[in-house]
Amino acid sequence: MVTTADSSTEEPAVTVQHSSAPAAASSPQGHEPAISLERVVKAYRSGSETVRAVGGVDLEIARGEFFSLLGPSGCGKTTTMRMIAGFEEPTEGVVRLSGRDVTGVPANHRDVNMVFQSYALFPHMTVAANVAFGLERKRVPKKEIRRRVGEMLELVELGHRAKHRPAQLSGGQQQRVALARALVNEPGALLLDEPLGALDLKLRQSMQVELKRIQREVGITFVYVTHDQGEALTMSDRVAVMNNGLVEQLGAPAEIYERPATRFVADFIGTSNLLSGTVGSADAAGHHRVDLGEGLTALVAELPKGISAGSDTHLTIRPEKVRIGTERPEGDLSILPGTVTETVYLGSATHYQVSLANGSEVTVYQQNSSDSALVAGRGDAVWLSWAPRHSYALPV
């Protein structure tokens, strides 16, 4: 569904509890941000209790940025977007669009458009008429409407479908019409609330590429809400991972994936192995040994602020970084013996579950090359290894 400036569409409120996670960082561009939130709070009354759906969020989103709010259901991401759009007013804090304080300003006076999961196209209208609808309500001259609608339909590659009705289009094509209807109004920012959720997997993946192409060509700010980590990592310039109404980590997709700041982020973004241990002293190469118990040790290349020798920690290691073999490797590596408990062949890769002597389970993803064979089967003894730079220490 596309919500133009005067829409009254409502959604159920998101209810989460307050936490003390760190606030997010600012826009990377160095210019006045397209959108900024300053200590924004949204609280609801639930009987005699006050519940914070958003617990004090600071964000700066740059002009022309593809920015994603990522998190599980109930984390506050949709409520945050609705406060940007003007469908919800913050209990505390300030919302700014292009430097202008719009806190308390109605949705129809904010320079943003919003696209929802349901397309809400007018079934009796043609594709072109659907896209033109907002411009006609603004009394834009007909010649200008024809020009802008034509350009927008070409952008979303539906110029040849201008005279069709929505029922004659596929789900992906209808979603592109919804995007065109929002973008034709030339908003300062486009807000997208899980717009691909109704599509099947293959079409959703295709639309991810299309969305990024469209955003790059029009050059306006996109703010994208999703619970799908793959979508956020694929399309975004930056991602804010939300949990319990706050931003737990904000950064580029690679930074969030490779260097999660909290255990929640490590668990939520992709698959991660978490090993509990105690940090020891550094070796000659500057790598810290982490005692995992039962005589097992791993290496970590660097320690984040707040973790030092003697600290308890969780090591996070991505499954694709771990190597598996039946012979003990050599080198400056984390090297752990284990026993295979499960193998899953997936065509392009094989997934292994390996049990360690301390009771931990480690997942390994091994890419299948043209001449590769199964490394080991269930019950086989194996060695796991990875480079110290692929271990990342998290606070307990």
Strand order of the largest sheet: 1-7-8-9-4-10-11
Q: Looking at the chains present, what oligomeric state does this protein adopt?
A: single chain
Ends distance: 42 Å
Helical content class: 10-25%
Judged by helices, strands and strand pairing, the structural class is: alpha+beta
- Rg estimate, integer Å: 25 Å
Protein topology:
Elements: E1 2-3, E2 35-46, E3 49-61, E4 66-70, H1 77-85, E5 92-97, E6 100-101, E7 112-115, H2 127-137, H3 142-155, H4 171-183, E8 189-193, H5 201-218, E9 221-226, H6 229-235, E10 238-243, E11 246-251, H7 253-258, H8 263-268, E12 273-282, E13 288-293, E14 296-300, E15 312-317, E16 323-325, E17 334-345, E18 349-355, E19 361-367, E20 381-386, E21 392-395
Parallel strand pairs: 4-9, 4-10, 7-8, 8-9
Antiparallel strand pairs: 1-7, 2-3, 2-5, 5-6, 10-11, 12-13, 12-15, 13-14, 15-21, 16-20, 17-18, 17-20, 18-19
Helix pairs in contact: 2-3, 2-4, 3-4
Molecular structure report:
- The complex is composed of two ATP-binding proteins (PotA), two transmembrane proteins (PotB and PotC) and a solute-binding protein (PotD).
- GO terms for molecular function: ATP binding.
- Pfam families: ABC_tran (PF00005), TOBE_2 (PF08402).
- The chain is an alpha+beta fold and 396 residues long.
- Helix content is 21%, strand content 34%.
- It is built from eight helices and 21 strands.
- It has helices at 77-85, 127-137, 142-155, 171-183, 201-218, 229-235, 253-258, 263-268; strands at 2-3, 35-46, 49-61, 66-70, 92-97, 100-101, 112-115, 189-193, 221-226, 238-243, 246-251, 273-282, 288-293, 296-300, 312-317, 323-325, 334-345, 349-355, 361-367, 381-386, 392-395.
- The protein has a seven-stranded mixed β-sheet, with helices on both faces.
- The protein is globular, with a radius of gyration of 25 Å.
- The two termini are 42 Å apart.
